[in-house]
Amino acid sequence: MPHDLACWKCGATLAALSLPLRRLDECPSCRAELHVCRMCVDYDRRVAKHCREPTAEEVRDKERANFCDHYAPRPGAYEAPDTRAIEQARSELEKLFGK
User: Fold this and answer.
1) What would the pLDDT profile of 83-97 be if each residue is shown by its tens digit?
2) Where are the alpha helices (DSSP H) in the chain?
3) Phi, psi of 6 (to 5 degrees)
4) In CA terms, which of 3, 19, 23, 29 is 20 to 30 Å from 86?
């Protein structure tokens, strides 16, 4: 059964992996660990400890595999980096130094 999961780090499809994801599963493209807070449905930077599950133990490193029993992979976990600020700074530097 295909699913629409993508790697939280690089955005590559994870359709070839079977569910449920195991703690040691990695992205076939970038080798990022997948059983991580950043890929969980309860991950939310706007709440305390970045987790909406009140009974979950705090996980300090949100990008490393963990043993959380509440983990459920989240479709849409990948967030493309905002490159506008970088491009604007580069443009300003080019103007300043004449490229």
Assistant:
1) 788 888 888 888 888
2) 84-97
3) -130, 150
4) 29
Q: Is the pTM of this model over 0.70?
A: yes
Q: How far is CA 84 from CA 45, 77, 87, 95, in A?
A: 22, 21, 5, 16
Beta strands of 2-99 (E only): which ranges? none
CA distances from 1 to 4, 33, 53, 77, 99 (A): 10, 22, 28, 20, 52
Q: How far apart are CA 64 and CA 71, in angstroms?
A: 13
In angstroms and rounded to an integer, the radius of gyration of the C-alpha atoms of the chain is 17
pLDDT in tens, 54-91: 999 999 999 999 999 999 999 989 988 877 888 888 88
Give residue 79's identity as a one-letter amino acid code.
Answer: E
Listed by start position, the domains of the chain span 1-99
